[in-house]
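Backbone shapes recur. Consider a single case.
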Amino acid sequence: MWNGELASVCRRHPDLVAIYEAPGGGLALLLRQTLVPLHEERGRWFNETRRAARAVVTSLRAAGVTEEVSVLQWRQLVDVAAVLTGWLCRYLGDAERCAQLSDIVSARLADRAAPISSTLLDWYRDMAPSWLAVEPEVRRRLIIRTHLWIAERVLLPMARGADPLAADLGPTGRLAWRLVRIVPPGELDVWKAWIRLTITDLQRALSWPAGRRTEVWVRWLFDIPYSIPVTGRRPRDVPVGGSTRAPRR
């Protein structure tokens, strides 16, 4: 069972960013090292993550932890995303680095999941620095998480000839649940208008007939969360690269 003593043990390891616990038991370590190393860096990356993981696991075992322990750096990105969104965070040693790694996972999965045209993919990559530079951090994470939902639940079904999963956009639907989980405790009142407006605009976009769902329409989907300010009020002047205005039908 997790306790304050284990948190003290974790703080001895600067390479340990967070620890997550599965609903059925088992721990996952999130280390400081990247989740997506370059090919030429993989050897050094593996040695660094192995050394850090061994040190953490040794300390946890000495403190009485008997659960199975895995390392997120060594798992598939889809598994990492499932852990970050569905497991209980037992220890958070570096919130900023944790958010950075989470954003990278979301962006990479969105990039992979959507079988989109090369021009749209180039546009998304060109816009990525703007989205990843958004402040405050919570808004940035909300935007990236919404993009991941668009890729998984809109573009991927459409590529298979199916309809987008609009049911996710209900008040207690999948997207609302995902976004609420990002909001820090005590800040839901600040962000609930943003979440509501984002979902409302996405519902409006998905109501368009299939014949009108062009590449411009897809760009509009990705722009929706980027264009909604923290206050929930729609901006009069659209920021560069973003627009809450629907493309012409």
